[in-house]
Each structure stands twice: as structure tokens, then as C-alpha cells.
Amino acid sequence: MVEWYLFLPQVRLPVADIVDRAQHAEAAGFDGIAFIDHLEAPGQSDENIWEAMSIADWVAARTQRLRVGHLVLCDAFRHPAVLAKQAVTLSAASEGRFDLGLGSGSWPAEFTKFQVGQQDPVARVEQLGRHLELITQYWAGGQQPTPTHSIPLLLGGSGPRLMKLVARYADWWNLQANHLDRLPRLADAAGSARISVQQMVGFVRADADSNAVREVSTRRFGHLGPGLVCGDATELTAHFAGLAAQRVERFYVWFADFAAPKSLVEFGETVIRNFPNAVS
């Protein structure tokens, strides 16, 4: 049994286009959608990027079944008491469709620019640990209201200190695309947390030129190494089946064509539906 999430960085796209892609993903059989959390687009400071919790709220209100979340919210951007209440509110409003994804931060340049967070990565992970403890206390009765639905906690990252937090707190552990080659070595450190991976996909649709798709995808995202896979439906089905055999239970699919609606529809029909728990 695996789950399928669309990973859709809310960069460049108008809000209406993000909603449109979310609705196409829902109709195509995806289980959820995940956004990023940055104060500026990483490496593209002149590009528009929408605020992470607000865009999740908006998409949740305009979908029926799709779960919403993030890969991942930056712990430094929100006080844990505020984040805990935001999570409870969105979970209740969406009737239990919110996943809380958290990490210690991956773009220190924005910490300096916006005077938030710490440069020291060890200190950031230590702070995340303190905040996780507080959030669990708030949900257990330290704040009102308490959650009316289960709020799955996902932690993203792969450092040894972070993995200790995964084993202690997380329902899910996500491995980012540019570290997929580390999955066999890290999986056991996740403890009882279920495993998800972020995977960039150059999807060769039936109407596409295979060489062109592979060339464009590699030019845009080849720096991800094994985090990028290109292929048609048959090749991608085999690829994801291989990851599922390594205990991966959720895929965050990141499309090299920025989740063109035609790709979402065909991916659902030709890849997702090859797996036994696919939404019909």
C-alpha cells in the first residue's frame, strides 16, 4: 500500500493555477499535495513565492478529499504555540486532511536576510527538538481546542541528530530527492516512522517526445542525481515499485514540467492506478 502526493512548490504560479493543479491531482487519484516553506524562492529571490500555511489553507478549502501539507515547514519561522494552533485549526477546518511536516531549515541565506532563525545547523535541530516537545504538549491539552482529528507529524531531513527526532516523534520520515541514494543506509534509523520520499519525475507522456522530455528534465533538475527519474508509464511504474519494496509507503512526486495538468491526468491513469490502493 502506497500513497501519492503531488509536490508543488508555490513559486511562479498564480494562486488560481495552484488550485487548478490541486484539483487535477485530486481527480487523478493523488492522495495529497505538499508545498514548500520559504520567505524567498531558494536561489531565485526575484521570483514570487506564496506563504506556506496560507496556500495550504486555500487549497484545502477548494478540494474535497486531498490531504494538504508541506515538505517541510521551517521550524524557525513560527513560534511552536502558534504553529500548534494553526495545525489544529486547519485540521479541523479540512475535516482531518492536514499533515504537519517540519524541518530545521535548509536555506540559511534567508535567515540572515530576514533576521530569523540560526545559522548553526546543530542549534537549529536542537531547537526543533524542543519545539516538537512543546507542540505535543499543546496538542495533549496545553492549548484549547485540542485536535479533533489525528494530525500526522512528518519530519524531513537526514542528519544523525534529525534522525533521532524522527525515531522519537515522527509518524512519517521524508527523504529529500537529492539524498535518495542514502535510503538503504538511513531507513533503519527512522524507527517506527513510515517512510516517504521526494522524487523528481520527467514523465514521458504518450504524446511526448521521449528524448526531448529527458533532455529538458535533465537540464533543469539533473543536479538532483538519483532524485531525478525519467521515463514513460511502464518505466516509472517499475521505478516506484522498486522503492515500495524498500519500505517506502508514500511518494511526493515533483514533476519536471511543473505539474502540467495533462501530466497529472495521465500519470494517475497509467502509473498510480497500477498500485493496489489507487483511488478509482
From TrEMBL:
It comes from the Bacteria. It holds the Pfam family Bac_luciferase. GO terms for biological process: alkanesulfonate catabolic process. SUPFAM superfamilies: Bacterial luciferase-like. Keywords: Flavoprotein, FMN, Monooxygenase, Oxidoreductase. The keyword rRNA-binding does not apply. InterPro entries: Luciferase-like_dom, Luciferase-like_sf, SsuD_RutA_monooxygenase. Residues 14-188 form the Luciferase-like domain. GO terms for molecular function: alkanesulfonate monooxygenase activity. This is NADP oxidoreductase. It comes from Mycobacterium asiaticum. The lineage of its organism: Bacteria, Bacillati, Actinomycetota, Actinomycetes, Mycobacteriales.
